Amino acid sequence: MIALLSLSPLASSGNLLLDTFEVADEVSPAAKLTYGFIFAAFVLSARAGGAGRGLLVNVLIGMTSIALVVALLPEYWSRGFGVGLNGMRFDPLPTAICLFGGVASGIIFSLTEARCQTGSQERASHQSRGG
To answer: What pLDDT sits at residue 126?
Structure first.
C-alpha cells in the first residue's frame, strides 16, 4: 500500500512489484526485528495466560505490536517505517496501513498455526496407529 500510494520517499519506477520490493527492502531491520520480537512476546504471554489460539487474539496481538513499534522505535532506527517514513510518528494514512499490516499478520499467523497443529495431530494419529 505504501508503494501503491507513493508514500515512500523512494522514487517510483512505474513497476508496482519492483516498487513494493524496494519499499519493503528500505524498512530498517530494527523495525522488522522489533515487530517480530514484540509479536512473539505477546503470543507467548497470551498462551501462558490462557488466552487461547483464536484469530481475534492474534489479530489484536498484531495490531498492538505494530502500534508499539510505531510509537516507541526511535526515528534513527525507523528508516522506511513509522516516523522514519516521513518524519511524523502517527501520520494517519501510513499508521492505518501499518495497522492493517498488523491485522494481516495476525490472520496469517492464525492460519499458519492452525495448519501446523493439524499436521502435528495427523502425524501423532498416524504414529499411534503404528504406521
So the answer is: 67
